[in-house]
Specification:
Elements: E1 8-14, E2 19-22, E3 28-41, E4 47-59, H1 60-69, E5 75-88, E6 94-108, E7 123-124
Parallel strand pairs: 4-6
Antiparallel strand pairs: 1-3, 1-5, 2-3, 3-4, 5-6, 6-7
Length: 139
Amino acid sequence: MARGLNKVTLIGNLGKDPELKYTNSGVAVATFSLATSDSWKDQEGNMQERTEWHNIVAWRKLAEICGQYLKKGSQVYIEGKIQTRNYLDKEGVKKYITEIVADQLLMLGGSGGRPQGESSDAVPMPEPSAPSKDEDLPF
C-alpha cells in the first residue's frame, strides 16, 4: 500500500509573539498564530481578501529560535505537517485543535528581530517526534 504525504508550506505573518514553554522533561515548545491571506476579484470586479489563521507548533531547538527571534508581525516561511489533537478544557469538555507542526523555518521580510548581519537562512530541524504519552504538554 502506498504511503501518504502530509506536507504544509506557508508564508505569512505572526499574529502574536511566540509563546515559549518547556515540558516537565525540559523539551522546548513554541506556539504562535500565523496569518495567510488570499485575494481575488469578485463577479463585480471588486477586490476581495480573506485571511486564514493557522496554529503553529515548533519543538526543541526550532522552538527556542522562534522564541528568541520571532515577534508579532514577523513574516516567515514555514514547512511542516498538519496534526489534529484533542485535549480537555477547564470544564472537562473534550476539544480538538488542528495545528501545523513546523520542521523548517525561514525568516523573511527584513531583520525580523535578528541581530544585524545575521542571515535569514532556513533552519532545518530533524524529523520531529511526537512527545511520549508520559510527557506533559504545557498547553
